[in-house]
Fold this sequence. Notes:
mainly beta; 2 helices
Amino acid sequence: MRRAFVITLTLLLSSPLLALEVPQRETLTYRISWNKLIGIAKASITMERGKEILTIEMKAKTVAPIDSFFSVRDYFFSSTPPDISSFLHYEKRLKEVGYHRHDEVTYNPSTGKLIYRKNGKLKSQKTVPPPLYDPCSILYAFRFRCPRESASCSLPSTDGKRVEKIQVIPLKEERVKVPAGTFDTFKVEPRWKKMKGVFRKKKGGHVYVWFTKDQHRIPAKVEVDIFLGKVVGELTGYEIKQAEVKAKAEKK
């Protein structure tokens, strides 16, 4: 699996205020399968909000029997201000069979300076006005800064090498059943042309994401159209700490 599971999304910043309160800490876990038939990997997303910085870690690891002949250990990291107003730092570390790569992107919203390094070597420097999001932080920006579920939205995004506006198109409301439970969701389709992030869809393919309609807007399911079929990620568990209230569900 050339790219680990995770979602590239965007939002419309029509208000300077957050639409929903960002949790203090959140952990989401997923089962990744091919065409919902063969389990190929497991993934996790952990977010932690501090007083001065918010961090996001995403991990993906292949499972048996796939791991015995095509091992994947992918890691993604992002940091933002606590209000997720723009990203500050992004890292992508890929460890796959015969392939290692380390991308690092830093961004200064006050100056607009964007710096991209690949495997420790400086590849590009450019100036891009804020706001700007990387493939990790854009997920949380969509969830907690987008004030409406029904409106199309777009936002400048970057993988370090490319900058483009990603559009999120609302499709329909749908009830979905995943290992973590059954959820009422709204389905969206993020669209982009050139940017490369956490996963790579085939040319002309689609990405669909189902977000829960509750106050958490958890990505309960994702479907990516690749050249060999479809990769599907399904929520297996979640733990959310928000103020003194904790919501928790795990696959037994």
